[in-house]
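Retro notes, structure queue

What went well: the backlog is down to a handful. What didn't: a couple of records were mislabeled last round, so from now on we paste the full input next to the output in the thread. Example, using Histone H3 K4-specific methyltransferase SET7/9 family protein from Zea mays:
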Amino acid sequence: MHHHHHHPAAVLESAAPAADPPPPPVLDPSSLRIHIPSSPHHALPSTPHKRPVVMTSSSSSSTPTRPSPSPFTPPRRRKVPAPAAPAGGAAARYLLRCLHLRLRILLLISLPSLYFLSPTPAILPHSLLADFLSAAAFSCALLLLLCLSLPRLPFALPLPLPLRRARRSPILWSIGSSPSASATTPTTGHFVQVYSNGDVYEGQFHRGRCTGSGVYYYYMSGRYEGDWVDGKYDGFGVETWARGSRYRGQYRHGLRHGYGVYRFYTGDVYAGEWSNGQSHGYGVHTCEDGSRYVGEFKRGVKHGLGHYHFRNGDTYAGEYFADRMHGFGIYSFANGHRYEGAWHEGRRQGLGMYSFRNGETQAGHWQNGVLDTLCTQNFIPGSPIAVNHSKVLNAVQEARRAAEKAYDIPRVDDRVNRAVAAANKAANAARVAAVKAAQKRNPNNGDDLPLSVV
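Corresponding output:
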């Protein structure tokens, strides 16, 4: 599965459903675009999540092992006692050799102290700057003396702070839940899983993954109720988003796939076939303003054969390509006029005939929606402006055949209704599983086995 996502917050409408999908754009005869948003991937509850785990060293690893002595190890040097100090100058030299470091430090300290011993300002004139420099030099020398002398003193001083920084335990990254939680928490049954991004899953688990029936609550954005297989939506279910959109139907591998109904929060509805999260196949898209398209879809847009009823009363039946009227088709206006012929990217282009409601016609070649060349009954060889009327009639026949096929496309209402009924049933089973998981998590119950936060 959703956080993200992800962690369930990876494969669905936004594995977490993030915000509701945008409404389809306003439809008009010149640009007919119905956009069925693809299903964003939810972060699934089974998605691995990185979490820091401090690995404490065991006693065997923390204590370094002493290597075995080598046969070539040189013999240890015996500690020979120091000879007695000779008398006279030799004794003085021995003393100086032992205390040479301390004598140097004492000389360093004595330099700034000369200031305090001077009886008159003739040696070093008194001033605020001189007082500050002398005090700073004396403090630095004293600090240096302490740092160098303390480790060499014959007696140990109880220091409150260690001289060396203690080693920190290494921080390692583990995939999934912490080892302690996974070792003690059962992975099969009804449980409640809480995720660090605020998402919650209540339902059935199998081997640590969401499998069976369950409800997944996306933090402040929506929920999914239905079937699960190996941590992904699979089977039938119901998705609901915070703004009011809802999908009921089939899923496969975490995406809308099969038959289902998507109701946008704007009032638009798509009912039909789905493939990998997008409308694909035969379906019906009804807009809030009353316009309606019945036909083929490919990867979320109109593509193939279909007929469209516009909100102003116009209708089009024929071929679509990449969400636009393209190929051959018939456009009937609400006032009784009609165009039959070729189309290109939503405009009349190619050979075609325009019929008025009084019976008059205009036939020929069209360019960008405008008739630029009239047809003639007799073909004139070599004439760049003449269009043979028989070719126009052939284009009209192609448009009529495409329109008939567009009205004869198979209907999927029955399959969609069966998928919606199965989705409602799966959602009810998921709610029952969620109740069982919540009861098992209740502290008043002896079977309290909540899952850890991941």
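Agreed that this is the format going forward. Reviewer comment attached to the example: Residues 198 and 219 are 5 Å apart (CA to CA).
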